[in-house]
Amino acid sequence: MKKFGLACAFSVLVGANALLAADVVIQQNELPQNSQKFIQTYFANEKVGLVEKSFNDYQVISQ
Q1: 53 strand-pairing partners
Q2: Sorting pLDDT into bands at 50, 70 and 90, what band is 59?
Q3: Over the stretch 23-41, which tens digit does the pLDDT of each residue have?
Q4: Most exposed: 35, 38, 44, 51, by fewest CB within 10 Å?
Q5: CA gap 49, 47 in Å, rounded
Q6: Measured distance CA(47)–CA(44) in Å, rounded
Q7: CA 30 remoteness from chain centre
Q8: Residues 37-48: pLDDT tens digits?
Q9: What is the DSSP string of 12-60?
Q10: What is the value of pTM for the model shown?
């Protein structure tokens, strides 16, 4: 019975980790201000197609 409880706890931890690590699509205006300024300064001619937020980072993809 003890092994079953341990297996259940492990499954819950793995599932929670998978949910936290998932990428989330956000709007460009939800980026941090320094990121928005960087894009406006160096990529003013590019059109942003997709912005994804992961646990610790952002990914911006142009169209």
Answers
A1: 24, 58
A2: very high
A3: 899 999 999 999 999 999 9
A4: 44
A5: 6
A6: 8
A7: 12
A8: 999 999 999 999
A9: HHHHHHHHHHS-EEE-GGGS-HHHHHHHHHH-TTSPEEEEEE-SS-EEE
A10: 0.63
Burial code (b: 16+ CB inside 10 Å, e: under 16) for 21-46 equals: eeeeeeeeeebeeeeeeebeeeeeee
Nearest Cα residue to 58 out of 41, 43, 39, 44:
39
Residue with tokens 């169209």: 63
Tokens of 12: 């819950």
Instruction: Write down the residue that tokens 């341990």 correspond to.
Output: 6
Tokens encoding 23: 């990428």
What is the separation of C-alpha 38 from the centre of its chain, rounded to a whole number of angstroms?
Answer: 19
CA 61/CA 25 separation, integer angstroms: 11
At 50, list the tokens.
């997709």
